[in-house]
Specification:
- The complex is a heterodimer of chains A (464) and B (483).
- Chain A has 464 residues and is of the alpha/beta class.
- Chain A has 12 helices and 15 strands.
- Chain A has a 7-stranded mixed β-sheet with strand order 2-8-7-6-5-3-4, sandwiched between helices.
- In chain A, strand 5, helix 8 and strand 6 form a beta-alpha-beta unit.
- The longest helix of chain A has 38 residues.
- The mean pLDDT of chain A is 95.
- Chain B is an alpha/beta fold and 483 residues long.
- Chain B folds into 2 domains: 259 residues, 3-Layer(aba) Sandwich (Aspartate Aminotransferase, domain 2); 130 residues, Aspartate Aminotransferase, domain 1.
- Chain B is built from 16 helices and 13 strands.
- In chain B, the strands form 3 sheets. Chain B has a 7-stranded mixed β-sheet with strand order 1-7-6-5-4-2-3, with helices on both faces. In chain B, strands 10-11-13-12 form a 4-stranded antiparallel β-sheet, covered by helices on one side.
- Classes of the chains: A alpha/beta (464), B alpha/beta (483).
- At the A-B interface, helix 1, helix 2, helix 3, helix 4 and helix 5 of A face helix 1, helix 2, helix 3, helix 4 and helix 5 of B.
Chain lengths: 464, 483
């Protein structure tokens, strides 16, 4: 019996102690007409060797591709120590640190994490994480509505340069509460919000979301945007990439007074791509708003002997105490991913993280230059960028991407569905993991594919 | 000592950073960071030693019996971790095209099918990233269903007073008012109160069965009948699915929507508080509203259904497809168990709980519901000890830590005074359960002979009891350089 240690003797002794004749007797309170024994679609159990064979076959089937896709999930080198330590049973199989004395490892680690994230974002405080970047944005929107007591409109200005799936998730989660995500368009030449296009009198705005870098990889005029929002009584929600913060101005220093709430996806800090999850969402804010912040928060305190220790704090915000009046229904963080991120940041340090960010930037600039020199490919926006950019093809984007994938290359992420006005465009990314040879492989394949697709599309005309 | 306190300026790990020399000139100064963030500057060995030592300050399933009620802290098979972390799975970008993803998608499709069967529902979405997000998805679907029928007068969600705090919090997030239904003396929902509460304003009811009181809701058919006749839907909180796996299916009890906590029933790790996974299953009438994406299989080829294929979906809950790595672990676990193994989960979880309850009662501890059988968990109340000896539930919990046991859930559910909610799970051996019972008996003796010893516990952990009031008042939430 997999994972069940009972011997027949154990079962007999235990039933005797209970005073029952059989295990079946213990289910006597379930009405008989509800009982269903059939689990017809579930296969027979297999042993570890057989499931290993199956899983290896399936993992190999999706064998490694050369990946130039980003769009919210980034391939970075992860030091071996990160997951060696993270999957130690003491981290991996513990739960939420309800019994603080028996959870000082997790608690101190989360306190260190909060310290690192607050410093990285330039904010006062951090929570112990949320589910992922998109749902963190949704929680940031809900938090802004609670925190901006002067605003009654529940209107959030949401640029179209925010990740489209972040906007979708935010809408799924907040729309039932009468919150409106008002779209803000972007400048077609620059690929960023044009501050000059912002209205002089926007009316009652609860918050402005500012992505940096934005979905296109481009750098927004965060100082001007922040000051504009604050001048009109709106809070600023920053959506940022944590690795970029090693070299970009932290949101706490944007404009005259800094962003109010900062969120994003922590995946670049030590979480593997892993098909999109588990990642973690991070959230930081000004100290004044900490009681409006959702999720677990760890505080340092002292024990009976005056010794320093760590505990869950400000729990009066949370669902298990406040029930229907809680700041959120969230009751977990993404502890294991935060463990990985804390170890990752400790191994890299500020210098190492800076080198990672710079290498990502440099490689994307190289890739962009190489693509821009390729016939039929055009760089779209004229704007400083971090580690992503948009290029446009002369050919149908779906055909190009399919042809690349047959050669094991993920050429980028198509923008055709989300930004049809950008034509046959893709979002590309080259992190520090990409070599010059990788970039050469990509552009060479692209040239061959372009030639073939062009040839197919324009058959040689028969002579008249 | 904090990692920051081991930090020394200029110490670095060159082997962990890219070697290439890359400039920053292409980023104008106005966008650039002026001061480096305060991250530790330690050697690789210092980091490894620091985090290894931190880990050793934790109780965990791998090191301790962890009978935390309502959390299903069962053994997490190592194979699940190893196989979910195969390079082919870890390296797969979420935007990988379908032709480079068939292996992963096959696992997700198979898992959907398994979860449909164990819950008796007709369709499953793997999208929710945690139980609470599964709850949100479930109630959002109930709202979408009523809205689609233009049945907009339904403004209320019912929930028993014993419900998890996430239930009312979720209903609020979906803009419903919450009406609490009282529980009767035997731990069942008060049927008369329920009848009086339902009406044209009822959107649905959120129920956990077995309930958080550790007993099976015996009149579930009546409850379903009452709520359905009023036009409401039934939501099943799958927190306690471990108790009924292979015995009874929520679909057969009349539920319209269910979320599962794969980190409980399907033994994925709790990770110090996440990540979880909270897939949702639905009956046919809620199927159009399932969150996206979903995996489908046509002619042996797997593909994703997204917003454009599912116009009535409540939408997307995460940037990508959910907590894929957690779902892979659950899949491995489900395949290792297989059909027979699933049946045995509820059998032995229930045997362990009833055995513990019987022995604790024999030792003089008071069951909250003495007339009832335990399910996979049960409640004892220490209100007599609190009153007569001045030793309360928290004191017992802290003293258990000294004896090497993680404490059961304390002071939840709120309905039972001085309660311990105890869930041994099926993977604990009789001898470990016996040791826990012996510790409880010893603590009882201590409470009688030397109550101070219990009230000032723990004595053998890295810290003694912490000052929670000070923590909330001082709000020391981060390390700063001035220290």
């Amino acid at each position: 019996m997999p994972f069940i240690p009972h011997t027949d003797d154990d079962v007999k002794t235990m039933l005797d102690a209970i005073g029952a004749n059989s295990i079946e007797d213990l289910f006597a309170e379930i009405p008989a007409e509800l009982r269903s024994e059939g689990l017809d679609s579930i296969p027979d159990g297999v042993n570890e060797m057989d499931i290993s064979r199956l899983m290896r076959e399936r993992a190999d089937q999706d064998s490694r591709s050369l990946c130039f896709a980003g769009a919210g999930a980034y391939e970075h080198h992860i030091p071996a120590a990160v997951w060696e330590l993270t999957t130690r049973g003491e981290f991996y199989t513990a739960y939420t640190p309800y019994q603080a004395e028996a959870s000082q490892g997790t608690l101190q680690l989360l306190y260190e994490y909060q310290s690192m994230m607050a410093s990285l974002t330039g904010m006062d405080v951090s929570n112990a994480s949320l589910y992922d970047g998109a749902s963190a944005l949704a929680e940031a929107v809900l938090m802004a509505v609670r925190a901006n007591r002067k605003s009654k409109s529940k209107r959030i200005l949401t640029p179209r340069t925010v990740h489209p799936d972040y906007r979708r998730v935010a809408n799924t989660i907040v729309h039932n509460q009468g919150i409106v995500l008002d779209e803000l368009d972007f400048d077609r030449q620059q690929g960023v919000i044009d501050p000059a296009s912002l209205p002089d009198d926007p009316g009652d705005v609860t918050a402005l979301i500012i992505p940096q870098p934005n979905y296109f990889g481009a750098l927004e005029d965060v100082d001007v945007l922040t000051d504009w929002a604050h001048a009109h009584g709106a809070l600023v929600i920053a959506v940022v990439n944590p690795v970029s913060l090693a070299i970009l101005t932290p949101p706490g220093e944007w404009g005259d007074s800094g962003a109010d709430i900062v969120c994003g996806d922590g995946q670049p800090l030590g979480a593997p791509l892993s098909s999109g999850g588990p990642y973690f969402g991070f959230m930081c804010c000004r100290k004044a708003f900490v009681r409006q912040m959702p999720g677990r928060i760890i505080g340092r305190t002292t024990d009976l002997d005056g010794k320093s220790g760590y505990t869950l704090t400000l729990q009066a915000r949370e669902q298990h105490i406040r029930r229907s009046k809680a700041t959120s229904n969230i009751c977990t963080n993404q502890g294991l991913l935060v463990t990985a991120a804390t170890i990752y940041m400790s191994l890299l340090g500020a210098q190492g993280l800076e080198r990672v960010a710079l290498a990502c930037h440099a490689n994307t600039m190289k890739l962009l230059a190489a693509l821009d020199e390729t016939d039929g490919v055009t760089k779209l926006f004229d704007r400083p960028l971090f580690h992503e950019a948009v290029v446009q093809f002369d050919l149908p984007v779906a055909d190009v991407m399919r042809a690349l994938s047959v050669q094991g290359i993920i050429g980028g992420v198509s923008l055709a569905d989300d930004y049809p006005e950008l034509g046959n465009s893709i979002l590309i990314c080259a992190t520090e993991t990409k070599t010059d040879a990788d970039i050469e492989t990509y552009t060479a394949s692209l040239k061959r594919i372009a030639m073939r697709l062009t040839a197919n599309r324009c058959p040689v005309q028969p002579k008249m | 000592m904090l990692i920051f306190e081991q930090s020394k300026s200029q110490r670095a790990n060159p082997s962990q950073a890219p070697l290439q020399e890359a400039g920053i000139d292409s980023i104008p100064a106005q966008f650039r960071r002026r001061r480096r963030p305060l991250l530790p500057e330690v050697s690789e060995m210092q980091a490894v030693r620091h985090f290894t030592r931190l880990s050793q300050k934790n109780f965990s399933i791998d090191t301790h019996f962890y009978p935390l009620g309502s959390c299903t802290m069962k053994y997490n098979p190592r194979a699940s971790n190893t196989l979910a972390m195969l390079p082919g799975f870890l390296q797969r970008h979420p935007h990988s095209p379908d032709n480079l993803s068939q292996g992963f998608m096959a696992c997700m499709f198979d898992l959907q099918e398994i979860l449909k069967d164990v819950t008796g529902m007709t369709a499953v979405s793997l999208a929710p990233m945690a139980g609470a997000q599964g709850e949100f998805a479930g109630i959002a679907m109930i709202r979408a269903y009523h809205d689609a029928r233009e049945d907009t007068a339904r403004t209320e969600i019912l929930a028993p007073d014993a419900a998890h705090g996430t239930n009312p919090a979720t209903a609020t997030m979906c803009n419903y008012k919450v009406k609490e239904i009282p529980t009767d003396a035997q731990g069942d929902v008060d049927i008369d109160a329920l009848k009086a509460a339902v009406g044209p304003q009822t959107a649905g009811i959120m129920l956990t069965n077995p309930s958080t009181l550790g007993v099976f809701e015996r009149r579930i058919k009546d409850i379903a009948e009452i709520v359905h006749s009023a036009g409401g839907l039934l939501y099943y909180d799958g927190a306690n699915l471990n108790a009924i796996l292979g015995k009874v299916k929520p679909g057969d009890m009349g539920f319209d929507v269910i979320h599962m906590n794969l980190h409980k029933t399907f033994s994925t790790p709790h990770g110090g508080g996440g990540p979880g996974a909270g897939p949702v299953g639905v009956s046919p009438r809620l199927e159009p509203f399932l969150p996206v994406p979903l995996v489908v299989k046509n002619d042996d080829e797997y593909s994703w259904l997204k917003e454009k294929d599912r116009p009535q979906t409540i939408g997307r809950l995460s940037t990508f497809m959910g907590n894929a790595g957690v779902l892979l672990r659950a899949y491995v676990y489900a395949r290792l168990l297989g059909r027979e193994g699933m049946h045995r989960v509820a059998d032995f979880a229930t045997l362990n709980a009833n055995y513990m309850l019987a022995r604790l009662r024999k030792a003089g501890f008071e069951a909250a519901f003495p007339e009832r059988l335990a399910t996979h968990e049960f409640i004892i109340t220490l209100k007599r000890q609190a009153k007569e000896l001045g030793v309360n539930t928290m004191d017992f919990a802290k003293r258990l830590l000294d004896y090497g046991f993680h404490a059961p859930t304390t002071y939840f559910p709120l309905l039972v005074a001085e309660c311990l909610l105890i869930e041994p799970t099926e993977t604990e051996a009789k001898e470990d359960i016996d040791a826990f019972i012996e510790a409880m008996i010893k603590i009882q003796h201590e409470a009688e002979s030397d109550p101070e010893k219990v009230k000032s516990a723990p004595h053998s952990l890295p810290v003694r009891r912490l000052d929670d009031v000070k923590a909330a008042k001082d709000m020391d939430l981060r390390w700063t350089v001035s220290e």
